[in-house]
Design brief:
This protein is α/β, with parallel strands linked by helices. The chain is 62% helix and 13% strand.
């Protein structure tokens, strides 16, 4: 019994349940009062002539007035500012009120029972049973009040009918005696089910909240870079497309910034240091751009900027310069501080219709232009760039649409030994004479072939011609062949090249593959494996354009190159710029110390050739010796050089 009563008590420490009880109860209480008023007045009216006026009219009228005011209070004030604490107080009052009203109406009906005939007494019985049970059901969400009403109502009914002398009423009283306990069990069972439902609802709400929080996190992760907190690439393009849809003919100003020198930070200090650089860069960019623009991390060390729409061309240029300058300030890392540099490509579009991809491509192309100048700074997309970009698209379409195999060929530039003047090798240089566009520069079609993923096929076509040329050339001559970044990082292409060498019968020792530092930067580990495999087959490897990258010494240390090719940018200014001369001398000394050959590119005068020879540079190529030649002319040139060298040897002897 104690546990039963405890289960019916209000749970003050469970605010969720209290609020659920009160909400359910507040919708039933008005019905309870309406039932009491209607049924009490109905009984009163039928007993006006058979019972004293104070009993038949005044008491039920007074009770009805009390019920009416309670009904009005519940409708007007009962649902205002409900908290768990206030709900607890109101339900305690309701329990007490239920007990008082049940006793009052029960006492009144018992007192009225002795008046009137059998029909009127039957009406009293109906009032006690039906009205009482109806009130009990209205109070089910407040089990203590419902249980109290049950006990009082059935007790009043049993007391009244048991001694009435009417066999029907006596039988009703006996039945009522056995109904008290089932009713109490029903009340308890209903309430426990209600409690379970509230708990289940609460658990579902918590799970829903957790799911919503997870969705929010997933949404944030889907649209934000987890390292820097900036918008990510997807969010960047969504923002760009949203602005284009909002103002189709007034496109936003877009910038792409790339960090020069970031990879060496990762290589030397580790990825943790690189992460610090990216986070600090993001912070500086965000502070400069402000709330009117959008800063995004597009991937790696590339950032996208949507400039504030109100900025003029000059203001955008100034902000672009400020962004590039911001990353030049030292960035603190655990091992000290590092510096990186920024290059920025910006598209300030004219009024008109653009797609997000159009704007990004233009800004990215402007970035490529400034990086190709090997200098940090800002470059705006221009009409000249538009012309180059249009040509690039046409070339890409031509590569994809037509069979270019018959239009590709190789020219051969002699590589000369400076001391003897003899030709020792040739560099095979790709040429494309398009039937549609005429002669297309390798600087245009090689990158296009890489972008359109036809570079592997192009490499195979050209290398097949190179092997045929080697079979014709004198056996002491070697051939240098350039591999693109995709080639050197593609195991399938390297295996195909080895198979072609085997089938051709050419000695692999006559072949030299040239690679650039850019190729190494794209995927060093794969490039390392491919280079090791090629060298194991007897093929020499040369590092092209040495000195223009960011980690050349690191690459030389980690990879066993057979030759370094000094970039023509240093060699061509050799006799005019002391710094170029010093760099060239340093590279020549480095090669001598490592026991590998050095090749100077871009030799255009006798003075440069003599200066290089004096420094210890062994091999050279350039227009001073010969332009790239067709195969037959290249072989003739080698013959003439050999004859001249032999004549000099004979004279000196």
């Amino acid at each position: 019994m104690k546990n039963f009563l405890a289960s019916l008590q209000l749970q003050k420490d469970n605010p969720t349940l209290l609020m659920a009880q009160f909400q359910a109860l507040s919708s039933q209480i008005p019905i309870l009062y309406i039932l009491l008023i209607i049924n009490a007045l109905a009984v009163a009216i039928t007993h006006l002539k058979s019972a004293p006026l104070w009993l038949s009219l005044y008491i039920p009228l007074a009770l009805s007035v009390v019920c009416f005011f309670r009904l009005c209070w519940w409708e007007i004030r009962g649902k205002e500012n409900i908290t768990a604490e206030r709900a607890y107080r109101l339900m305690k009052v309701t329990i007490s009120g239920a007990g008082i009203l049940t006793v009052a109406f029960g006492s009144w009906s018992i007192a009225l029972y002795q008046y009137g005939d059998a029909s009127q007494q039957g009406q009293i019985a109906y009032f006690l049973v039906v009205t009482g049970i109806s009130c009990i059901f209205c109070l089910m969400h407040l089990p203590m009040a419902a249980a109290m009403t049950t006990v009082i109502t059935f007790s009043a009914m049993i007391t009244t009918f048991m001694f009435s002398g009417n066999p029907v009423f006596v039988a009703t009283a006996v039945s009522g005696l056995f109904l008290i306990l089932p009713f109490l069990r029903v009340i308890n069972s209903y309430f426990q089910n209600f409690v379970g439902l509230v708990q289940l609802t609460e658990e579902l709400k918590k799970k829903q909240a957790e799911a919503e929080e997870l969705n929010l996190v997933n949404s944030r992760n889907a649209l934000h870079d987890q390292l820097t907190g900036l918008a990510n690439r997807r969010s960047f393009f969504l923002s760009l497309e949203e602005r284009l849809q909002k103002n189709p003919f007034s496109p936003p100003v877009l910038g792409i910034i790339d960090l020069d020198g970031f990879k060496p930070v990762n290589d030397v200090f580790g990825h943790a240091a690189g992460d610090l650089v990216l986070k600090e860069t993001a912070r500086r960019f965000t502070a400069l751009v402000g709330e009117g623009g959008i800063v995004s991390r597009l991937g790696g060390d590339e950032f996208g900027i949507i400039f504030p729409s109100s900025m003029t061309h000059q203001a955008v240029a100034d902000l672009g310069q400020a962004l590039c300058a911001a990353v030049r300030d030292p960035i603190e890392i655990p091992d000290g501080s590092v510096r990186v540099f920024g290059s920025c490509g910006i598209v300030y579009p004219d009024l008109g219709e653009y797609t997000a991809e159009d704007l990004y491509e233009k800004a990215d192309f402007a970035l490529y232009q400034v990086k190709s100048k090997r200098s940090s700074g800002v470059e705006f997309f221009s009409a000249e760039h538009e012309k180059i970009l249009t040509q690039r698209h046409l070339i890409e379409l031509e590569l994809q649409a037509n069979d270019f195999a018959g239009e590709l060929k190789l020219d051969y530039q002699p590589i000369v030994e400076l001391k003897s003047g003899r030709v020792v090798a040739y560099e095979a240089l790709a040429r494309w004479d398009s039937a549609r566009f005429g002669r297309i520069s390798p600087t245009a079609f090689i990158p296009a072939a890489e972008r359109t993923a036809v570079i592997g096929r192009m490499t195979r076509i050209l290398f097949a011609q190179a092997l045929e040329a080697l079979a014709i050339m004198p056996r002491h001559l070697r051939l240098s062949f350039n591999l693109s970044a995709r080639d050197i990082c593609d195991h399938e292409t390297s295996m195909a090249l080895l198979a072609m060498i085997t089938r051709s019968g050419v000695d692999p020792k006559r072949i030299e593959f040239e690679i650039t530092e850019t190729a190494l930067l794209s995927d060093f580990d794969t490039a390392d494996r491919v280079i090791t495999m090629l060298r194991a087959a007897g093929i020499s490897i040369a590092l092209d354009d040495f000195g223009t990258g960011f980690s050349s010494l690191s690459h030389i240390h980690r990879l066993a190159f057979d030759k370094l090719k000094i970039d023509k940018g240093f060699v061509m200014n050799f006799d005019r710029d002391a710094r170029c001369m010093n760099i060239t001398r340093s590279v020549a000394n480095l090669c001598q110390n490592l026991g590998i050959a050095s090749v100077a590119e871009g030799v255009e005068s006798e003075a440069i050739a003599e200066g290089l020879k004096a420094m210890g540079v062994r091999l050279a190529q350039g227009y001073y010796f010969s332009r790239p030649l067709p195969l037959e002319l290249a072989i003739e040139y080698a013959g003439r050089c050999e004859a001249a060298a032999s004549a000099r040897d004979a004279l000196s002897a």
